[in-house]
């Protein structure tokens, strides 16, 4: 089970305002051509890519495959995939949500030098992409010079529209029937649209056989048990413009305050457990079987991340959950 739709965005981020304060000095505004800039970046060699989301941060150091024509679908979603011996990365880019690009020339707050930061139309950071120290220095500078925006004094900070009222979810029998018929993410997105993407509203409206709330302690227990069994699991995170699913035998969880850190082969994951308000065990139709996932939601009932078997052994994943889920 992968991420099922794009989460909604909160107010304009402090990171955009921080960059705006350094605009024209340590930070330069680039043209609003994120796809062209991404294609150029992926040709520079090794990159360090950080994906932002509401309750997590994922950094990966790797040689990204170049984006090519033909890697997008009819909805304008671009994707790239990298497969290793025991790991798999699939990254989908909803480029229609990518809006502004800033180049960081010197360290600015937590942002490293020689990096680009991409923001969505709501002013939220999507990804930060830095060129690895051993590659691409001159090419990075040439890219920045070629894509400079003529206005280096101002940034356009967007204003969000008010949230619409929830629609009628319908009867319990109809809701569960629609759930049981949702064979893919697009089908399930229709259910979420009825409650304006507030997943907790949907999950509380069906019976435990579809969505069952479990104790938050379940997630670290599952992660620790998976590490002890050397079992691969799939972690999906995302924001308005990036959907990232990584399958790997993750390291044992390492804790730093409320942050749970996982690692595998150049990928570093930080999950902020303080942002997790509820944790749900979900069951949905899959490829010839029922698939199970753990999904974390924030205090607004919106999606943070999903942990599942992905393309791995579903029966082994269910056995792991049976030994780890805390009701």
Automatic annotation (TrEMBL):
Positions of the Haemin-degrading HemS/ChuX domain: 21-144
GO biological process per UniProt: iron ion transport
Pfam family, one: HemS
Highest taxon listed in the record's lineage: Bacteria
Gene3D superfamilies according to UniProt: HemS/ChuS/ChuX like domains
InterPro entries: Heme_Transport_Util_sf, HemS/ChuX_dom
Name of protein: Haemin-degrading HemS/ChuX domain-containing protein
The organism's taxonomic lineage, starting at the top: Bacteria, Pseudomonadati, Pseudomonadota, Gammaproteobacteria, Oceanospirillales
């Amino acid at each position: 089970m992968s991420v099922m739709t794009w989460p909604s965005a909160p107010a304009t981020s402090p990171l955009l305002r921080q960059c705006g304060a350094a605009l024209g000095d340590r930070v330069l505004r680039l043209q609003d051509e994120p796809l062209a800039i991404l294609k150029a970046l992926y040709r520079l060699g090794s990159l360090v890519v950080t994906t932002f989301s509401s309750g997590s941060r994922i950094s990966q150091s790797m040689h990204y495959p170049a984006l090519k024509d033909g890697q997008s679908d009819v909805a304008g979603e671009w994707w790239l995939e990298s497969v290793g011996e025991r790991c798999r990365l699939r990254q989908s880019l909803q480029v229609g949500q990518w809006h502004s690009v800033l180049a960081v020339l010197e360290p600015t707050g937590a942002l490293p030098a020689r990096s680009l930061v991409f923001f969505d139309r709501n002013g939220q950071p999507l990804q930060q992409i830095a060129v690895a120290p051993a590659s691409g220095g001159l090419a990075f500078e040439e890219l920045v010079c070629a894509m400079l925006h003529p206005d280096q004094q101002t940034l356009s900070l967007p204003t969000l529209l008010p949230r619409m009222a929830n629609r009628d979810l319908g009867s319990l029998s109809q809701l569960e029937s629609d759930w049981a018929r949702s064979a893919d993410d697009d089908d399930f997105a229709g259910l979420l649209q009825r409650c304006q993407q507030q997943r907790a509203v949907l999950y509380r409206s069906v019976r435990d056989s579809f969505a069952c709330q479990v104790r938050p302690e379940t997630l670290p227990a599952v992660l620790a048990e998976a590490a002890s069994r050397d079992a691969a699991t799939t972690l999906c995170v995302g924001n308005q413009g990036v959907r990232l699913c990584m399958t790997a035998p993750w390291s044992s969880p390492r804790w730093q305050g409320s942050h749970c850190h996982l690692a595998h082969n150049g990928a570093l994951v930080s999950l902020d457990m303080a942002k997790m308000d509820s944790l749900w065990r979900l069951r949905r139709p899959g490829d010839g079987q029922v698939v199970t996932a753990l999904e974390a939601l924030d205090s607004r009932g919106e999606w943070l991340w999903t942990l599942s078997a992905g393309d791995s052994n579903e029966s082994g994943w269910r056995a792991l959950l049976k030994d780890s889920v805390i009701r």
